[in-house]
Design brief:
Largest sheet: none
Helix content: over 70%
Order of helices and strands: HHHHHHHHH
Number of strands: 0
Structural class: mainly alpha
Strand content: under 5%
Number of helices: 9
Number of domains: 1
Distance between the termini: 20 Å
Shape: globular
């Protein structure tokens, strides 16, 4: 990974969190639309770009690793309370350990996501036959980190955390995916281990993206607004175009 990729990964979280400081009470509708876009893009790149690659070797135990990533994300949500897909639940958790358990869950999830980033460009080139388009995983992580950072800052501020402590938590969260990517560069993973890592992250992506899309229905009457449908189609369209440019 190059410096600019680390910079985008880190600064996108700061941008999402900084927005919450200004628009904590006005940004909920925008947050919902951003989540619909990120969820559809994340789901599309997982199906179009990630899944075909990890299933290229039939002797790999790919399905088990995908299930592992899916259910680990399910467990992490017990700590993060769904903030990775934009949920903000404060209730009576002010000045308790609740925000710190959320931070731990989000940070562990972000760290795991960052691990395969250093290997994805080579992986993509091997399984798709071309060098361009290797940034889909990075862009997918960035797109769902933006609303997650917005939700994290909103939760901390609503929990009466000081701005200084909130900024500290945001910086820690922003550092986790770059840290995972950086540490993985020191380990020479073989093709099987890279495949397993990506399969694990795919399981996590499938859980997050489908949860976002299932919750795109505001009315709970199995229908969504035209604006959200348009945003979802835009996310899928971007993923389709990613391999063509």
């Amino acid at each position: 990974m190059g410096f600019w990729e680390y910079a985008i990964l880190f600064s996108s979280v700061l941008l999402g969190g900084a927005t919450a400081f200004r628009y904590i009470n006005q940004g909920q509708q925008v947050l919902k639309l951003a989540l619909s876009f990120s969820g559809s893009y994340l789901f599309a790149i997982t199906v179009l770009h990630l899944l075909p690659g990890v299933f290229a070797k039939p002797d790999y135990q790919t399905g088990f690793w995908i299930l592992g990533g899916f259910f680990l994300q399910l467990l992490l949500e017990q700590l993060s309370k769904g903030l990775e897909h934009g949920h903000i639940h404060v209730h009576q958790h002010k000045h308790s350990s609740f925000p710190f358990s959320v931070m731990f869950g989000l940070s562990l999830h972000a760290f795991l996501e960052g691990l395969p980033l250093s290997y994805f460009e080579d992986f993509h080139s091997t399984h798709h036959g071309h060098d361009h388009g290797g940034e889909q995983l990075l862009l997918g992580i960035v797109l769902h980190k933006l609303p997650a950072a917005f939700a994290l800052v909103s939760l901390l501020l609503l929990s009466r955390f000081s701005k200084k402590l909130t900024w500290f938590c945001l910086i820690v969260f922003a550092s986790m995916s770059p840290l995972g990517a950086w540490l993985s560069e020191f380990f020479k993973f073989n093709p099987l281990q890279v495949n397993n890592l990506l399969s694990f992250v795919i399981g996590s992506f499938l859980h997050i993206s489908t949860t976002i899309l299932f919750e795109a229905d505001d009315t709970h009457q199995h229908r969504i607004s035209w604006s959200k449908l348009g945003i979802i189609l835009l996310g899928i369209g971007l993923a389709l175009l990613a391999d063509m440019i």
